[in-house]
Every structure is written in C-alpha cells, then in structure tokens.
Amino acid sequence: MKDMTKLAHKGRDGTDAGGGANPPIQRASTILFERAEDLYGNKLPRDYATDGMVVHDSLKEAVNALEGAIQTILTPTGLAACTLPLLTFCKAGDHILLSDNIYGPTRKFAMTQLVRFGIETSFFDPRADEAITRNFRDNTRAVFFEAPGSLTMEIGNVPLMAKLAKAKGIFTLMDNTWAAGWYFKPLENHIDVSVHAATKYPGGHSDALMGFVSAKDGKIARALRKYDQASGNMVSADDAWLVLRGLRSMGVRLAQHEASALKIARWLEEQPAVQQMLHPALPSHPDHEQWQSDFTGACGLFSFVIHETNEKKVLEFLDRLKLFGLGFSWGGYESLAIHCDPQIVRPAGSWKDTGTLIRLSIGLEDPDDLIADLAQALAGIG
Ligand SMILES: *Cc1c(COP(=O)(O)O)cnc(C)c1O
C-alpha cells in the first residue's frame, strides 16, 4: 500500500464507529468491568482510559503504517515527543549528543532539566558525517538528529551518522517534523526512534498540539511504552480525533505546500534583497544532493537570508506583510513568517551568516498572492 492510501485507510480496521466512517470520540477515565475476577486479570484491551480509547488506537495505527513502526506513542505536544525518548533511555552519568541545529526547546530541556539528573549534553555539527565519531564518548547514550534544521535547514548524512552511532551501541533519535513522516523514513535509516510534532502537518490546521514517538524494534518500543505508562503521559480523545482527521488529507496538503513553497522560493532567489536561499529542493542549497538522496520531497517550510541587518528595517519588513501571519509554529493552512536570529544558538559553531535569517511557512493560499505580498514588503529594504 502506498502512503497516500495508508492515510485514507489505516486506523479504520476494527473501530467500533457504529457505522460511521471515523472512530468515535469517547470521553473516558473509568473503564467498567463486568466481573470482579477480571479487575486484576489483564484480560481487557484497556483497564483504564490512560491505555487510550478507540480513537487513540486508530491514530496510532495510522502513524505506525506511515512510519513503518510497530508502536507509536501520542504526546500532548511535539516537545513532549522529543523529551519522552530521552527520559526513557538516559540515566545519571550518561552523555547525550544533540545536533547543533536541534529544535530550541529540546536544547533547553537538555541544558536545564536533564543536567539536574546528571545527564551531560554536548552538540555536534549537523553536517559532521564521518567526523561525528569524534563526539562519541564511552558513556554516550543517545544521539538526537534533526534534518533539515527547522530554522537553518542543514541536512547532514543522517543515515551514515546514525549507522556509525548504532555500531557503538548508541540510541539514535530523530526529530522528523520537517519531513512530516512523509518525505523521509527515519526507521528505515538506522534511527531507533522517530519523533515529530504532529502539531505541524498532521494536524495541519493550527488548532491542536500533539507529538508522535514511533519505534519499530520490539525492545525499544516496550521501553518507550513502559515510560509512557509510568509517567502519566496522555492526550485527549478530542485532540486525537482532530489530528487523525488532519492526517487523512495530509498527503494532498503537503503536495500543495511543496509546490507553492518551491514557486515562491524560486521567485525569492531572483530578488536583490535576498542574499541566500535555504530551500533544500533548490540546486543552490548547500545540501541539495544530500536532500535528493534521502528525501522524496520538501514541505512548505524554508528560510532565506536577507542583506538587511538593521533590526528596525527587518521588523518593518515583517510588519508590512499582510497575508503572512507573524507567529511561531508552522505546517498549518495559513502562511507564517518570522525572523530567526534571536533564537539561533549554535554551541558547535555550525551557523554563520552575514545578513538576517527569515523563515517562511507557506500555507495553502494562492502562491501568486503570497509572492505579491512578499514583493510589496521587500520593496522597502535594501
Ligand atoms: C514545533 C516543533 C516541535 C515542537 O512541537 P510543539 O507541538 O509546538 O511542542 C518540535 N520540533 C520541531 C522541529 C518543531 O518545529
């Protein structure tokens, strides 16, 4: 079955929907047992609602199909999907490696929280490739990849780096939000745990927060599930239903996001105010070849560097945009823009630019209208 068909059909087998095409939203805490002898008997598929109701099972099954996983855990945010595997696998005395371009709040979690439990963090260049082995220590427990970086868009050779880590017995995790579980398949590329912010493309409508944590190895899946149950992690049936609904149309949305973003990126590349485009599908991207070899497409999120460094003028440029909202997150139907410099932290020194980094999330508007909006806003900068 191809991915597009999986999106339409997976997670619908065996759902007790009373004839409806979709699973029901069951609000529940208590699960009732018919007989006292079953209370501690482990016979029912669920004995408390934290085991998930029908809609949770449906969503997990659909994501498993997409990721090639045997188990997916739903988390209340994408950030919680990033922290859950670290908390599952790391203990006091361990060292973890984070990609220098890792999602900022994941970095913050490691630096402010894991450190309290005696877990040390260091950072590697996302394009280290073979040289990543220099960062491995005897106590390195996990390495966390992200490609492309969600601001600066670097794409290293993740399959190679993950293979080298696995050869050392190190757990490999990847934040796969940009590829949406669609354009790159971490679990087929030496990654033990694929996480992504379902808040972005799976949800797709800027109305729900959620994360996915997927694994295909039985032992790893069981360890994640054990932590999941022990920690009280859960999402509501309403949110699971919304994200499953979003997932059904993700394939066609992504195709439109991809086409519009490419059209806009190609136009931007011709503009004098633009110093450098950072869209992996453009031949000018420094990691274009790596992207071609590992990814089957590109989403609607890309960045570009403008010559302008006067902050006031940069802010005025953003304020002139009418169709682009100013705000964090991405992957929704509506276009968004931010300037990135205030949130770029690169301990391994992997990012240097001489202008100002702007990031766009291209939504589902007509790309010609978005180009016209960018043109009028860019007109005011040098
Ligand atoms: C947004 C995002 C997350 C976190 O998702 P939330 O649901 O907002 O917590 C994680 N990783 C990346 C790359 C993201 O862009």
What does it look like?
It is a single chain. The protein has 382 residues and is α/β, with parallel strands linked by helices. It is built from eleven helices and twelve strands. The chain has helices at 3-9, 54-67, 78-89, 104-112, 158-167, 218-231, 237-248, 250-269, 288-294, 311-320, 367-378, and strands at residues 71-75, 95-99, 120-124, 140-146, 171-175, 193-197, 211-215, 274-278, 301-306, 325-326, 336-339, 356-361. The strands form two sheets. A seven-stranded mixed sheet has the order 1-7-6-5-4-2-3, sandwiched between helices. The mean pLDDT is 96. The structure holds pyridoxal-5'-phosphate. Pyridoxal-5'-phosphate (PLP) binds next to helix 3.
Quick overview of this protein structure:
The protein is of the alpha/beta class and 382 residues long.
